[in-house]
Amino acid sequence: MSSAVKVSDDLVIKAKIKSKIFKRSIAGQIEYWASIGQVIEENPDLPLPFIQEILTAKEEIKAGLGTPYVFGEGA
Predict the structure, then answer these.
(1) What is the overall mean pLDDT for the chain?
(2) Those residues with Cβ within 8 angstroms of residue 68's Cβ, 6 or more apart along the chain or in another chain
(3) What pLDDT score was predicted for residue 75?
(4) Which of 2, 33, 53, 67 is most buried by its number of CB atoms within 10 A?
């Protein structure tokens, strides 16, 4: 379900620039920023690059590009 939300023109301009760099829609860029913000609020002790690496790894697993780590297995 989608909803219309008013955001500032400044945010839209910034999202437009970043969306072109990362090949996302403007809405997709704003959603990405919102999701990162949510994760940061829920995990204030984790640095942003670490959070980004975790999110990247999760997407790689979903795409079949890796093997999920299973705790207690391996050396």
Answers:
(1) 91
(2) 61
(3) 60
(4) 33
- pTM across the whole model: 0.72
For residue 44, the Cα-to-chain-centroid distance in whole angstroms is: 16
Q: How crowded is residue 34: how many other Cβ atoms within 10 Å of its Cβ?
A: 10
Element (H, E) at 41: helix 26-42
- Nearest 5°: phi and psi at 71? -60, 140
Tell me how far CA of residue 15 lies from CA of 18, 41, 59, 71, 73, in angstroms. Answer: 5, 21, 22, 38, 42
Q: What is the DSSP letter of 74?
A: -
| Cα separation, 41 vs 8, whole angstroms | 22
